[in-house]
Amino acid sequence: MRQYSALKYLAYKFIFISTVLFAVFVSISIAADNLAISIGVLGLIFLIIAKEFKFKKEDLPIGLFSLKEFFSSVFSLNPIHSLLNFQYIWHFAPYWITSRSKANFTLIVNVLGVFTIIGALGLYFNAFFGIRPVDIFSVGINNLYFVKPMPGIFGFSGCASYAGIIMVMSSFFFGSLGIFLNNKFYYLVSILALFAGILAQEMADWLAIIVSILCLPLILRNKKTLILLLLFAVVSIGLYNTSFIQKRLNQTIYYEKDPSIVIRFAMMKASLEVFKESSMFRKIFGYGPSFGAQVIHKKAVFYYKQMAIKNHIDPNIEVPTTIDNFYFNTLMNSGLFGLAMILCAFFTLLVNNIKRLKSVDTQQKGILVGIILGLIAFYVASGFDNLLGSAQVSIYLSFMLGLAEIGLKNNIL
Fold this sequence. Notes:
Layout: H1 2-25, H2 30-49, H3 60-74, H4 79-85, H5 87-90, H6 93-99, H7 105-129, H8 136-139, H9 160-181, H10 184-199, H11 203-219, H12 223-240, H13 243-253, H14 259-277, H15 280-285, H16 291-311, H17 326-356, H18 362-381, H19 391-408
């Protein structure tokens, strides 16, 4: 018994340390996230040995995420390679770690807020001064100069689309907490994160913001909702008058002249064609993690060249070996079986959190509304990028879902 008690104590210490590290690094460093996962997984192992780990019904959606990746690996074109990659464990470990943490919710959220601001500032530096955050000190303050925001920027956390959706989801989470708790610091984090997400210049994120805001009346029906919608309309009109937003919107409206958008359409068309030609086994189980993109690549190149010539744009632009649509990517990697699992997980996450709104206190309602709006934004943006396939984004999402469970522990239906 003493041995189990010691293991239990050590387990929760490791899990606490891991949770704090996630709060510090999920917005700014994928490398440090891996350190947090390593410490947290060790804590989970100790917790299992001490017979303290139990499954809860709230774990089901995250379990489906992992199972989808696991089965995709088992039926992969190269099962050994896919299984030994361990992304079906690693990407979603933050949820299992954080949701079992006994850390103080407010402490973790405040730490997360501080480092979300730092992550946002990284995007600002790149957007307005044309430098990466890691180069700030080497460049020197005297050499900084103002530049117009450019597409493809990145902050501390790398790819603009990944940094952008992280900031958008953070904005909804902290904004909701700010509203329900009347906390000025959370308002500040939300505003800074929102504009950082906008400056990432990913149209998918802009669309995600719009759809989530428009869904707000379906979740909350009070005066605050009307005020927020009016404020959103005013801000949107103001932002529309900025040149870089008008430029990006015009690129989207006239998408046939934008190679990056045409490439996405070529990827989707190639995915459908390859899916139709695939054997029944591959239609059901897919080709395995990352293999789907390789299988469709030749057709994607062919369709891009075809569309490019038709629309008088450069047909020789290199088409990346990716599928920039999570749902098409899942279809090719995991088949109909995997796509059904992930859609079930997405639906369950959303519905369960909406149901919880019926009987929670003010702080918990703030958590839930922030998570729900963030999930809607994530689902929308996933239609334009393989977000859950990114370690950076899946670790962030897993952590946030786990963090929500800490705040809801006292009143879970």
